[in-house]
Specification:
Blueprint: H1 2-24, H2 29-37, H3 39-67
Helix pairs in contact: 1-3, 2-3
């Protein structure tokens, strides 16, 4: 379980960084204007926000699997 936890933690952290970088483009003035007037751009912004939260969730699950691993069967 610890291996799976490490994998989820690393993937969650990497996914969070990538999604945050992509979503950060919508925080500029140009990004705000584009996402205000274009439903396609608003959808992209929401996708990256959802990807950030999904990555955080995967990282938390990975952390739980590292800290509280399952008992080994005898």
């Amino acid at each position: 379980m610890r291996r799976l936890g490490m994998l989820l933690l690393v993937l969650g952290f990497a996914g969070f960084l990538i999604a945050s970088a992509k979503r950060g483009g919508y925080e500029s003035f140009e990004g705000v204007v584009r996402s205000t007037f274009s439903s396609e751009e608003r959808g992209k912004k929401e996708f990256w926000e959802n990807a950030r939260w999904l990555s955080v969730g995967a990282g938390v699950i990975g952390l739980v699997l590292i800290v509280l691993p399952g008992k080994k069967s005898a």
